[in-house]
Task: structure prediction
Amino acid sequence: MTELTNKIIELIKKNKSINEISLETNLTNKQIYNILTILKNKGINYNRKYYYSGDIVYTKTSILEKKEKTNEINLITTPKEDTLTFLAISDSHIGSVDENLTALKRTYEYAAKKGIKVIIHCGDIIDGLSFGGEKIHKKYIDQIDYFLKNYPYDKNIINFCVLGNHDIDSLTKASINFMDVLNSYRHDFAVTGYGEGAVKIKNDKIMLKHYLLQDSYEKLNIESIETVGKRLKLDGHHHFYSIREKESSVVISVPTISNMVHNYVGICLPSILKITLKFSKYGYILEAIIEQHIIGEEMIKINEITLDLSEEKPKLFKKPENEEEKSKTLTLK
Ligand SMILES: [Mn+2]
Result:
């Protein structure tokens, strides 16, 4: 193993975050992802901890650890962080001629400007080749290379995502697993899985969903997500913004950030949601403030709604397992 690789292993042992390792090794975060992927293929595997501050910490894996549900990923906060803000986007369809890389880039710039470190992507990140509409590429692998080259990147932003029917296309048709691609080359994407998943925050969770064809569901054997009380569910695939109540959930359909906007819902521009969650002292979501912004040269807020999610939540105090006293932020020397 090279000296550099050994140094990375040592820094991981010292609980250094990706941004700290980058600073100490003079490597970019993406170069570190690549080295860790090579290590993974040699059997040296790390779990990832994702912080609300936008940083990632690698931890050793062990078979003795309690296995977490794989489709639920923790967002680590501090007890003081009781109001959280993130952006929700969906259906970027990279590789379609109707993609909108400018809108994505502006979203990343907006997040950076506002100090927002978390983006939730509700699926159909890439377009695949099997569905309608003109494509930029003829081969799946070319589309994925294009994604890796062109999708915006910010070392201080973490994306939580669920994968959709377009993302799974390369797996069913060409044995290319886009989830593996993200896990290897984009550690800033915390992938909850195909079809559905959840982001666990304090004692609550936000459920993520994107439509899959029925036979994909059956083959994937997707684990169900247990919830108590009224929960927030972010749903991709529909391309337009809507809020509805379904069973015990408040389902928010997250609009597309591509140019595949439907003119029958009025707004024919790509848009994003800015979501602010307020938590109770018990660690449950009390309130969600949802803003829709259309993406011009500036973000333009076109509506805002406050949802009361306080009903039916347990009142028993249980210290969240995914809270830490200190936020992981880059400690500059
Ligand atoms: Mn879809």
Notes: The chain has a mean pLDDT of 91. Residues 243 and 252 are 5 Å apart (CA to CA).
